[in-house]
Amino acid sequence: MLxxxxxxxxxxGTELHLPVLRxxxxxxxxxxxxxxxxxxxxxxxxADSLPHAARLIDPxxxxxxxxxxxxARVAPLTALAELGFRRVLVEKPLAADDRDLREVLALREAAxxxxxxxxxxxxxxxxxxxxxxxxxxxxxxPRSITIVQSKPxxxxxxxxxxxxxxxxxxxxxxxxxxxxxxxxxEVLGAHCSDMLLGDEVYPALGGAVLRLSHAxxxxxxxxxxxxxxxxxxxxxxxxxxxxxxxxxxVSAADDHAQLRVSTQGQQLRSVFRDDSLGAFLAHAYRHFxxxxxxxxEPDTGAAVVELISAAKRLSGVAVPxxxxx
Length: 325
Fold this sequence. Notes:
9 helices; 325 residues; 2 domains; NAD(P)-bd_dom_sf; single chain; Gfo/Idh/MocA-like_OxRdtase_N; nucleotide binding; Rossmann fold; globular; alpha/beta; Dihydrodipicolinate Reductase, domain 2
């Protein structure tokens, strides 16, 4: 059985990955390490350094969950590779920008790493149903896709979690979904807004808009508002013969998704369980065991970074100087 090493104990590591791992793989060994935080969960072994972690668990039979911030990917990946870890599940996005991406991919090639970016919506039941509608052309050809991800993010932004911009928070999920549904794309336009909180201004962390043109002819608009009073994860697809609206689960409090299909004179609505992160992590471990490979990665994850990097350039957003890499 493959073991687990979780590197980075922020929200992604402690509130997302570890609870799902405990449910999916209750008997598998788990080691955790974070140089800045102490583990606050039972049932794990805490390492005080990456070399210590490599002594606690066999690197050759371990899946690393790299849950560090986007601007801190290269250094830990290099250290992990030097210690013999080869299977690495990387939190989204794969890198903070295309410069870091080149270093990550060069390290992958040199160290023969099996890199898999986290992409939970690729394992979503809602995504599967949307892709099926598009593939079967029951409603004709798709014309446009609109993806909206909104939530209030004031507290986490004020505390500082090293996300360089709003493009790095929710947009990677949305860009991946757009590529899975409509294929390769290029950036048509983008802009970013600041977050205002009292007398404080948090540059580029209030929200973002990204417009894509796909080689298939579909146009996608992605919008994220991190100052919204409500949570929403919504995708709308306009087709020749109707409109499809999907709502992803917005939090761990309720893992149900909704799908509404509207045609002339008819509207069908369905509600179904959609534990996308659990399904994705289960698939990831099959991938790392060589049983059910996710063959388009890390190419698709790299495409996500390249599109977001292009959007940042159009918006005048850059990785902060001195960011830990």
